[in-house]
Amino acid sequence: MYFNSFDFLIFLPVTFLLYWFLDNRKIVFQNLLLLAASYIFYGWWDWRFLSLIALSTVVDYVVGLKIYESNSKKHKKRWLLCSVFFNLGLLAFFKYCNFFIDSWIELCSAIGIQNQEFTVMRIILPVGISFYTFQTMSYTIDVYREKLKPTKDLVAFAAFVSFFPQLVAGPIERATHLLPQFLNKRSVSQGSISLGCKLIIIGFFLKLVIADRAAIYVNAVYNNVELHDGLSFIFATVLFAFQIYGDFAGYSLIAIGTAKFFGFDLMTNFRRPYFAASIHEFWNRWHISLSTWFRDYLYIPLGGNRVGKFRWFFNLFITFLISGLWHGASWTFVLWGAINGAYLIIEVLLKAKSRKGILNIISTFILICFSWIFFRANTVSEAFCIVKKIVLQPGKLYIGMGDDIAAPFYAVLAIIVLIGFEIWREYIGSVKQITEKTEISRMLAYSLLIFLILYLGVFGDSQFIYFQF
Amino acid sequence: MSKYRVIIFKLIKLLIIIVIVDMVLGIAAEKLFYTQKTGKYARSTYAIDQTNAETLVFGSSHAHRHYVPDVLENELQTSAYNVGAEGQQLLYHLGLQKMILKRVTPKTIILNIDEDFLFNSTFAYDRLHDLYPYYGDHKDVLRPIFAVNNRFVDIKMFFKSYLFNSTIVHMTRYYVSPQIDYKGYRPLNGTVSEKEIDNYENDTQPKSNLIDSNLVNALKEFILNAKSNNIKLVFVTSPNLIKGNYKQNRSFSLINVIATEHNIPLLDFFNDPRFSDNHDFFHDPSHLNDKGAKYFTKLLAKEILAL
């Protein structure tokens, strides 16, 4: 079920009412309801893949307990490896199997060996597999590190793994933060519902007005590389920077807002990333739940920066390379990760990690946009072709055709509104100062935003970009 | 319990404010919508609210670009208006026909037939949003059409801002660059290039080969609406640059069967030798240029007179 579907518009209030109807009962009933709702939410796409979530839940639940019960470090480690291999195995099979087979065949043919033994299988990528496998892995790792006691409450654990607001595209929650919320009584307050509504409305504005409007132009240009010139690619890339931000930050806000309706607190995933004055700062503001996951479970275990300089750079680079691969089974994502890893190493070498100022913000944005070319391009060769056109063939700017001709202008208009809003948040004050003078002014402001969403938004059950990851 | 009462009270209050804001700004959006002078919405609004033409041409871009009302008027000694709309399919034509027939009864309706009209296509449903702005005044005829593939039509259409979604995008476009038409017809200029022909030949397979029963029903309803109003209905196929074996197309075969069953004449120009391979008449492989459109309309008028 998509957040931007009418099914969800029915699903959310029904689940909300049933959930708080059970407020006076034991907490297990609320958890059972959340579990059932989450399975319905996920099963709306493809019920067959519910078995994967259920399996992942059972495996990590059992492993968590086994790690805790084991007396020796060696046994604990064995159980942990079971969980890691199982979760990464799921990912490897469903997400990367064909990618590795394809790459192997291409490599063989490149060196002149015709390899007929491998055939590409028809594997459907289960929605959100990268998110829930990482979330459950964090649970077993934290139990192993004794940061968390494993739970014996299977229902609470299953509800934690499949919690529908963040199941398919994050934020990737840590068990230490989210699981205790399933084990303790939640409470509803006027403040949390009000905040939830606000976040959902802003999330939909980002998704439907900015991301989906920008996508019309971006897709027209990036899907027809041979037809367009460098200027169009520059414009499309800048629009894509806001498209992916609107899409993913929008999803995160809707997820966080939805969770508030049920008394849950999810972590912040984006903090105005395009105001970063360095790449280092950008990664502290962009997809925070994933970057901190990689920091805590990969970068630091590899030694982080408490090693020699060469090893430190290796750790940085490999972390971003894997982060790129996490985004998708394609060499474009690997290259995107490599570019970001290289940026960070160069920043360390130039001692430019803690830069400040508008010029640094702009240069960071340009560097990030350059890396987005590789993220968005359909193939690596197309990405290089785009870079070549930007440098050597500026040509003329494509402004759209047919019914889509005005789409980029409205996207730009909405982006200007977004930037103004974010400048206010970043440098001046909180949104409360604008909207929360009185209750009526607050409600009017959000009603106006809803009007803009309905009037200018793109409706067509479009997917969120991060679902494919 | 009082905590829940306060929350529900506030949510209701928010909903009421949303509805008021939607209504007030929605009315402004509606007023703005009806100020349009040119463009696709201006044409459909004119057809629905004003035209008294005795001959109306329905269909997709092939109708919009191929039928010259001035030529029809001269040849048939009648008044004519082209209500063809680019990219639109049968459900749209049915909706438009029903809205027009509520006000006026033309003598003749020409429906330009695309061979793939009855094949399953998401466009047939997705592009219906061009009729959303008329939902308020024509709910009786539009609701059944929108509900064919839309479970939440009543909730969606409740919001005025949703009815006029994205219309401002088009309005701006047509204000900046007015889209001149000649009684609904917009000529295409220039002649087809060899490159376009090559690209077209590689891309002529229909996207689907499945017949959509909703579209079959829409065609039958279109026919019945005309018959019950004593309107002379004529099906016409437009000429193509490249000859094709349309007899093997399941959709077109079924259209032929339906036309025969209902005694509707079908004037078939698909493989007309006067047009096939005649590059001078075509803007692209499937659309006539102004010269071709005028010639085609003249030939068609003669055939209609002969019926």
UniProtKB/TrEMBL annotation, chain A:
<keyword id="KW-1003">Cell membrane</keyword>
<feature type="transmembrane region" description="Helical">
    <location>
        <begin position="444"/>
        <end position="466"/>
    </location>
</feature>
<dbReference type="InterPro" id="IPR004299">
    <property type="entry name" value="MBOAT_fam"/>
</dbReference>
<keyword id="KW-0812">Transmembrane</keyword>
<feature type="transmembrane region" description="Helical">
    <location>
        <begin position="310"/>
        <end position="327"/>
    </location>
</feature>
<comment type="similarity">
    <text>Belongs to the membrane-bound acyltransferase family.</text>
</comment>
<feature type="transmembrane region" description="Helical">
    <location>
        <begin position="6"/>
        <end position="22"/>
    </location>
</feature>
<keyword id="KW-1133">Transmembrane helix</keyword>
<dbReference type="Pfam" id="PF03062">
    <property type="entry name" value="MBOAT"/>
</dbReference>
<keyword id="KW-0012">Acyltransferase</keyword>
<dbReference type="InterPro" id="IPR051085">
    <property type="entry name" value="MB_O-acyltransferase"/>
</dbReference>
<dbReference type="InterPro" id="IPR028362">
    <property type="entry name" value="AlgI"/>
</dbReference>
<feature type="transmembrane region" description="Helical">
    <location>
        <begin position="222"/>
        <end position="242"/>
    </location>
</feature>
<protein>
    <submittedName>
        <fullName>MBOAT family protein</fullName>
    </submittedName>
</protein>
<feature type="transmembrane region" description="Helical">
    <location>
        <begin position="51"/>
        <end position="68"/>
    </location>
</feature>
<feature type="transmembrane region" description="Helical">
    <location>
        <begin position="333"/>
        <end position="350"/>
    </location>
</feature>
<keyword id="KW-0472">Membrane</keyword>
<feature type="transmembrane region" description="Helical">
    <location>
        <begin position="357"/>
        <end position="375"/>
    </location>
</feature>
<feature type="transmembrane region" description="Helical">
    <location>
        <begin position="27"/>
        <end position="45"/>
    </location>
</feature>
<feature type="transmembrane region" description="Helical">
    <location>
        <begin position="248"/>
        <end position="267"/>
    </location>
</feature>
<feature type="transmembrane region" description="Helical">
    <location>
        <begin position="405"/>
        <end position="424"/>
    </location>
</feature>
<feature type="transmembrane region" description="Helical">
    <location>
        <begin position="80"/>
        <end position="101"/>
    </location>
</feature>
Automatic annotation (TrEMBL), chain B:
<keyword id="KW-1133">Transmembrane helix</keyword>
<protein>
    <recommendedName>
        <fullName>DUF1574 domain-containing protein</fullName>
    </recommendedName>
</protein>
<keyword id="KW-0472">Membrane</keyword>
<feature type="transmembrane region" description="Helical">
    <location>
        <begin position="12"/>
        <end position="34"/>
    </location>
</feature>
<keyword id="KW-0812">Transmembrane</keyword>
<dbReference type="InterPro" id="IPR036514">
    <property type="entry name" value="SGNH_hydro_sf"/>
</dbReference>
